[in-house]
Amino acid sequence: ENLTAREVMRFYDRVRKLPKALADEALAAANFNGFSDKPVSEFSGGMVQRLGLAVAALPDAPILLLDEPTANLDPVGVKRFRDFVLEQKARGKTIIFSTHLLAEAEQLADRVGIFVSGKLVAQEAIGNLRKTFLANGTIEDMYLHYVGSERHEEY
């Protein structure tokens, strides 16, 4: 909480035995100019989320696992996240992320898994889902098909 963004990044550098310069590169890529040396406790929710994305991107890992990566991000942050995902995909990385924003999954994912009460109820290539459900409906219609309309009625 009292650490700065740079200190957080350097901590993960040391834990992962990465070159120190990677922390500064990741902070610059996450657009932390002017904020790198401020305590994380002073950050907004969106800034904390961006720091988490910078930490996730720090190692050159083949797989990134992200939980609700666009939560608390403003529209500019969401755009940067989408660009980041597309860049990582172009580099051959696998990105697994959870989201409640179905349009985000439709836009970024190659494959979609749908979980209901912690169980995987469907897994399909997004292209197949488009052919099956999206020709005459929405991604929300597809989701409701798998979770059942009775779950929808609870709300």
Distance between the termini: 37 Å
Instruction: Please report the number of helical segments.
Output: 8
Give helix and strand order, one letter per element, not per position: HHHEHEHEEHHH
Structural class: alpha+beta
The amount of helix comes to 40-55%
Strands across the major sheet, in which order? 1-2
Q: How confident is the prediction overall: mean pLDDT?
A: 84
Radius of gyration: 18 Å
Instruction: Report the sheet-strand fraction.
Output: 5-15%
Q: What composes the largest sheet?
A: 2 strands, parallel
Overall strand count: 4
Overall 3D geometry? Answer: elongated
Low-confidence stretches: none
Please explain how this structure is put together.
The chain is of the alpha+beta class and 155 residues long. The chain has a domain at 110-154. Helix content is 52%, strand content 15%. The protein contains eight helices and four strands. A two-stranded parallel sheet has the order 1-2. Helix 1 packs across helix 2 and helix 2 (21-29) packs across helix 3 (45-57). The N and C termini lie far apart (37 Å). The relative contact order is 0.09. The model has no long low-confidence stretch (mean pLDDT 84).
Provide keyphrases for this structure.
155 residues; alpha+beta; two-stranded parallel ribbon; two-stranded antiparallel ribbon; 8 helices; 4 strands; elongated
